Amino acid sequence: MALITITSDLGTRDYYLAALKGAIISHCEKYVPMVDVTHQVKAYDIKEAAFTVRNMYKYYPKGTIHIVHVNSTDSDGKLLLAIVDGHYFITFDNGFLSLAFERMPHQTYEVNAELMEGASLMYEEAIAKVCNFLINEYKPSDFAHLTTEAISYRSMQPITRNGSIRGSVIYIDNYGNAVSNITRATLSEHIGDKPYSIFVNVANTKAISKFYNDVEEGEMVCLFNSAGYLEVAINKGKAENLLGLKLDSAVLVMVD
Question: Which of 113, 146, 179 is the last residue of a domain?
């Protein structure tokens, strides 16, 4: 059975999300379950959307259709369909795909103009038609064409030098924890078994913990989260507020 997930910056206060879902239900000839990933992505924030989608899609079965409805205003009238690891991603030409997958997927299609005729600012009808084609096992080439001209941004990789890693905060979760772009593999490759310190704004630590409560309440703790990224948190507190962290704040790891 096909499955659709929706990640968006549409929120739930307005009619926009309901309109998108209604269009999908109306156009799809078969019943398809829809999963709401989140609709609280910060408005226009493709970086946040990329982090969310990159770390969630692998938990769904191959063949799942993932709609990423974030920052549609920068789409320039283009709707894209990408195929990655057997999953379908419907999104806009705003750079999201290059951030989510570290480069533009080789199988990136632009939906043909005839499907985009009369599209609203939300593109809900075109998105719904693409979902219906995929559910009925049409090939992407039946309603779209391969493109290499989509907007692409450089991936959010940390800067590495001998004995140091300069990363940055790429996501702040609901608990106020700050997730950096430093992975366990990056730390192992560039720091190894050498003693090191982690510097985050005005705070620092010499240890990476396994659990949040490895430190006293109110103290900073660094650990690798379930997605493998170095996370900065405060046990039972909000690192975002207490450490003055925000997106793009520096996270520095240096050999002692």
Answer: 146
What CATH number is attached to the domain comprising 205? Answer: 2.40.30.90
50-103: pLDDT as tens digits: 999 999 999 999 999 999 999 998 878 899 999 999 999 999 999 999 999 988
pLDDT band at 156, cuts 50/70/90? confident
* Closest by Cα among 183, 144, 191, 152 to 167: 183
At 183 the three-state DSSP class reads strand
* Structural domain includes residue 151: no
- Distance CA(172)–CA(231), nearest Å, equals 9
Between the CA of residue 39 and those of 36, 103, 202, what are the distances in Å? 7, 25, 33
* Residue 101: domain span: 4-146
Angle at 75 between CA 121 and CA 115, to 5 degrees: 65
Could you tell me if residue 154 is inside a domain? no
